[in-house]
Amino acid sequence: MANEAIETVAVAKKPAKKTATKKTTAKKTTKGKNDKKYLVIVESPAKANTIGKFLGSNYKIEASMGHIRDLPKSQMGVDIENDFEPKYITIRGKGDLLGKLRRDAKKADKVYLATDPDREGEAISWHLLHSLKLDEDKEVSRITFNEITKTAVKRSITEAREIDMDLVDAQQARRVLDRMVGYTVSNLLWQKVKKGLSGGRVQSVALRIICDREEEIRAFIPEEYWSLTAKLANKAGKGFDARFYGKGDEKIELKSEAQTNAVLEGIAGEEFKITDVKTGTRQKKPVAPFTTSTMQQEASKHLNMATQKTMMVAQQLYEGVNIKGEGTVGLVSYIRTDSFRISDEAYEAVIGYIGTEFGEEYINPERIEYKSKGKTQDAHEAIRPTNVNRTPDSIKESLTKDQYRLYKLVWDRFVASQMAPAVYATISMRLAAGDYTFRSSGSALTFKGFLLVYSKGEEEEDKMIPLLEKGEVAVQKSMLPEQHFTQPPARFSDASLIKTLEEIGVGRPSTYAPTLTTIQARHYVTKEAKTLYPTELGEVVNDIMKGYFGEIVDIDFTANMEKRLDEVEVGNDEWKQVIRDFYPEFHACVEDATEKLAKVEIKDEESDVICEKCGRNMVIKYGRYGKFLACPGFPECQNAKPFFEDAGVDCPECGGKVQIKKTKKGRAYFGCENNPECNFMSWNKPTGEKCPKCGSFLEEKGKKNGKIVCSNVKCGYIQEKPESEQNES
Questions:
Q1: One domain, residues 26 and 150
Q2: Number of structural domains the chain divides into
Q3: If both were cysteines, with which of 139, 379, 552, 666 could 110 make a disulfide (CB 3.0 to 4.6 Å apart)?
Q4: Do 221 and 701 form a contact (C-beta atoms < 8 A)?
């Protein structure tokens, strides 16, 4: 790469609070204030277009089109021997843009770096400072704004500052860590296992979480339980339900039909007498305004919007949309945040809007300040509309369908966050039938409060019951015993995986969407409807990562690393020390894997399937979708077909061979070789034996220390695997 000269960046020793400093020479000038020329550099053309409206003609707005330089793609780009010094290069294709920005900077009296207000944005400004050689003789300032509005942009000019090197160093530490892990592990997997594999720091933890959940589901054995509901009515004939609670004050869990029948016999002919009645009210508190993760979760659940798409649309709303009668305006505040905080100005605006539009009774009596469960960077406000009076419907015709849906979600959530609680009237009754106790409760919404604006997943169905007096007897209509089975933990969706990553402290607002995108793009995970499943390839990579790079995929280790990056950001830790502490053990893992992974290299296996095009025995290859059959005569013969591995058992329905097959999206299942004539299919491996209790086929549950269970969940037959098979498969 002749045109990609590598430049090593030296980092100065830390002052108390580091800023990018430069030598400046005072120059005499006869220019008046209004004659000066200013250059403002942002990241995107859309942002430049919006900001251009707010500043005068002596301001020129240009876009860097994102990063201007980065670590090289062709090598690790980190000098291990030179104290982990990063080697930054100008990104390929950015040369002409860089030249133009340099010319513009020379013509300007002052340069403002206005990239995004986060670690990555700070690092981009720092890279611009060096790449444009602004640290030589040019007056340069860093400006940030949480929203792209006239007030915020103009205020940022008056509050200009120097580049915050603590933020830059936190981003450098993350970038170097991710490059060292991603480049080294991916290269190792590529060489030792198969081309196209990769293993990143955060993505490997996300993959592990999904694979661990899949193993929980495979190992899960349903347990039987029963419910018993009494269908009752008051004297006026108004019906209500009461559910079995126990005996006296003792709660009893019904585990079997026999136990349930014993209760039914015990209450046969007995009256249902009211022994206790309570009435009251219950409040449902409003929901917090959005952070990045909660916006992604709600957009996934209620708008069916993929995480990557959510962030793309949110970026459009933040950078500016052309609104009829207003021009281009930023509609929401900065979209990468983990804070629930809102400004005093935004608070005053929203309670003013609530009082005018809905009435004073809908304003929460006191300002609500939402607290995060864990530590947040709290660098920005929560995601909110830049102008609460710009309602979704008032600008609907200027927005795309997706922009409108997401803006309405953000707007509704923000307004609801400072509204009064919803209020429910409640009734709860305790009933005695012989020695047994039943309970009945109901509620009805009496004041909507915040639900008037935001009810998605929050509003409860009215289930008010008639109010009976203590000592009164309810009329029994019927008894409804029902059999149930416990359910395995649910597989992850985009929303629930992001929530989990946030709760355990892995990743940050800017990393959730790229992580989800990467594990799907690598075909480690597939999505069916909204549900994430690990593919066979994903499980292979996860097993390798757990076996050889246990620390990398350790959840606590990764979460603690995030905390250390936060400490770098506030100046309490030195970024290279984070790398120095991490590298020795990581390097030892790499050395160990380099030696041992050669023994588990996946080789092409010859099959007994004959290529119908050239007569050779086809071989089993491993691609990004899993195993497949290919002709060894490639490239002369390019024949390939799906590979169905023999599961080693006969089909319980027709006697044919059971094969391990895959859905279109790569999820493994067990199916008959005689499909479509035979439609046998199971997610669990059949054993080839019949259940001694009901005659259905038996199947294996769980890879390790699993059990053999009846495929008929209502049967409930279970037996232990033979010890010789406990840790197989």
A1: yes
A2: 7
A3: 139
A4: yes
Tell whether the model's pLDDT for residue 11 goes beyond 50.
no
Q: Report how far apart, in Å, the C-alpha atoms of 150 and of each of 53, 110, 322 are.
A: 8, 20, 15
Residues 429 and 504 in one domain: no
Contact 693, 686 (CB under 8 A): no
Decide if 66 contacts 42 (C-beta within 8 A).
Answer: no
CATH code: domain of residue 349: 1.10.290.10
Using CA atoms, how far apart are residues 457 and 375, in angstroms rounded to an integer? 26
Q: Which amino acid is at 646?
A: D
Same domain, 430 and 441: yes
429 shares its domain with 409: no
Q: Which residues sit opposite 681 in a β-bridge?
A: 671
What does the chain come to in residues? 729
Residue numbers of the domain that contains 574? 173-220+491-599
Instruction: Verify that 408 and 470 share a domain, yes or no.
Output: no
Q: How far apart are CA 616 and CA 619, in angstroms?
A: 9
d(CA 604, CA 629): 10
Instruction: Give domain status of residue 357, yes or no.
Output: yes
Neighbours of 619 (CB within 10 A): 19
My answer on whether 32 and 151 are in the same domain is yes
Q: Hey, which bits of 114-153 come out as E strands? A: 139-142
Domain of 273: which CATH number? 2.70.20.10
Report residue 545's pLDDT band, with 50, 70 and 90 as the boundaries.
Answer: confident
pLDDT tens track for 371-390 = 876 555 556 789 999 999 99
Cα-Cα-Cα-Cα torsion 315, 316, 318, 319, nearest 10 degrees, comes to 110
Confidence class for position 402, pLDDT limits 50, 70, 90? very high
Distance CA 604, CA 540 (A): 16
Per-residue pLDDT band at 593 (split at 50, 70, 90)? confident
Residue 54 shares a structural domain with residue 101? yes
Are 401 and 345 members of one domain? yes
Q: Which tens digits make up the pLDDT trace of 687-702? A: 888 898 888 899 888 7
Q: Does the pLDDT value for residue 23 go beyond 80?
A: no
pTM: 0.77
Question: In the chain, what is the straight-line distance between the N-terminal and C-terminal CA atoms, in Å?
Answer: 47
Buried b (16+ CB within 10 A) or exposed e, 375-407: ebbebbbbbbbbbbeebbeebeebbeebbbbbb
Question: How far apart, in whole angstroms, are the C-alpha atoms of residue 337 and residue 122?
Answer: 15
Kindly state whether residue 1 falls inside one of the protein's structural domains.
Answer: no
Alpha carbon 71 to its chain's center: 26
DSSP assignment of 480-538 equals EEEEEE--PPPPPBHHHHHHHHHHHT-S-TTTHHHHHHHHHHTTSEEEETTEEEE-HHH
Is 290 domain-assigned? no
- Active-site residue flag, 407: no
Task: From the candidates 88, 245, 334, 407, give the one annotated as an active-site residue.
Answer: 334
pLDDT digits (tens, 9 = 90+) for 271-300: 999 999 999 999 999 999 999 999 999 999
